[in-house]
Structure formats: C-alpha cells, structure tokens
C-alpha cells in the first residue's frame, strides 16, 4: 500500500453525517446527482442504521483520524437469488484517492460478503468513474450487459459482478 495513514473500521452512528457529506460531495463530481442515483436514497442520512440490517455491513476509511470515505455490502434488492450481494456506496474524497484504500476497502467488503454466505457480488457505476472501474476489473469483476436486481438506480450505466 502506498500510504498506510488510513484505517478501515465499521461505521458508527457518529459517522452518519460525515458519510452523507462524502456521498453528496463525491457523486456530483462525476455527474451522478440527478434522478436515478444513490445520492437520493433516504439511507444516505442514516447509513449506520441502514447497514445494521441482516447480512449488511458498511465500513468507513479514516485518514489521519478523519472519515474520508466508505463503502458497504448488502443483499441485492430485487434479486431472485439470496446469495447475491451488492457492493454499495463506495465513495472517497479526493485526499484519500490513490493511497490503496479503495482496494483494501473492497477486499474488506468482499471478505464480509463471503462471511455472510454470499456467492456473487454485483455493483453498478457510471461511465466516467474510470479509476473505480479499473479497480473493479483488477479485483476480478467482469462487465455485464445489463443491470441485475432492482436497485432503483436507473442513472447507472455500467454493471459488474464477481464470483465470491
């Protein structure tokens, strides 16, 4: 890892407002602020509660003691197979990017997904999030032609999955 001044830990209620700020700051940077994007999900304001559900987990990444990013996993909404999860709401402020934390956070989420008994991980993103897509490909995610499940995020136009 390039810089190990960051650490990954489970989200707490104290982190909710900071995580909401991060999501609402990063998504518009990539044009993901209109209809059909996760920025409008009600859970953005209470992520610790939303990911306190069965087979769900959300982690934050601290850099020098301040939460600068996060990401989580949860069962895929609308999936016909209960063994499919979704990598969700993984966003980093610019100061955290390029430090190796993205790969480490994704590995943390995927390990937790395996612990929960998931067999396939799905994610969706959009064109323009090139660094994120490079990270997904490097981790073994493969591109899909169409979305899975029913996430309600019709604004996303890139879809990936990985066997766990």
- Please write the string of helix (H) and strand (E) elements: EHHEEEHEHEE
Helix share bin: 25-40%
CATH fold group = Aminopeptidase
Main beta sheet, described? 7 strands, mixed
Shape summary: globular
| CATH top-level class | Alpha Beta
**What is the helix tally?**
4
Structural class by secondary-structure content: alpha+beta
Number of strands: 7
Instruction: Give the percentage of residues in beta strands.
Output: 25-35%
Distance between the termini: 23 Å
Task: Provide the CATH superfamily.
Answer: Gcn5-related N-acetyltransferase (GNAT)
What is the averaged pLDDT score? 89
By CATH, the architecture is named: 3-Layer(aba) Sandwich
Give a written overview of the molecule:
The chain has a single domain (6-163), classed as Aminopeptidase (3-Layer(aba) Sandwich). It is 26% helix and 28% strand. The chain has helices at residues 16-29, 47-50, 101-115, 130-138; strands spanning 6-10, 57-63, 66-75, 84-92, 120-125, 142-144, 158-163. The mean pLDDT is 89.
Pick out its properties.
164 residues; alpha+beta; Aminopeptidase; seven-stranded mixed sheet; 26% helix; globular
Describe the structure concisely for a colleague:
26% of the residues lie in helices and 28% in strands. The chain has helices spanning 16-29, 47-50, 101-115, 130-138, and strands spanning 6-10, 57-63, 66-75, 84-92, 120-125, 142-144, 158-163. It is globular, with a radius of gyration of 14 Å.
């Amino acid at each position: 890892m390039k810089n190990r001044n960051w650490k990954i830990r489970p989200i707490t209620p104290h982190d909710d407002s900071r995580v909401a700020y991060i999501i609402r700051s990063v998504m518009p940077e990539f044009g993901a602020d209109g209809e059909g994007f996760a920025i409008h999900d009600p859970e953005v304001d209470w992520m610790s509660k939303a990911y306190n559900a069965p087979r769900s987990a959300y982690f934050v990444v601290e850099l020098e003691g301040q939460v600068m990013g996060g990401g989580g996993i949860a069962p895929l909404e609308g999936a016909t197979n209960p063994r499919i999860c979704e990598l969700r709401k993984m966003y980093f402020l610019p100061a955290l990017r390029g430090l190796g934390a993205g790969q480490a956070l994704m590995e943390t989420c995927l390990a937790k997904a395996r612990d929960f008994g998931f067999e396939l991980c799905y994610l969706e993103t959009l064109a323009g999030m090139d660094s994120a897509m490079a990270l997904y490909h490097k981790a073994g995610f493969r591109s899909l032609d169409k979305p899975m499940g029913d996430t309600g995020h019709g604004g996303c136009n890139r879809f990936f999955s990985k066997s766990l």
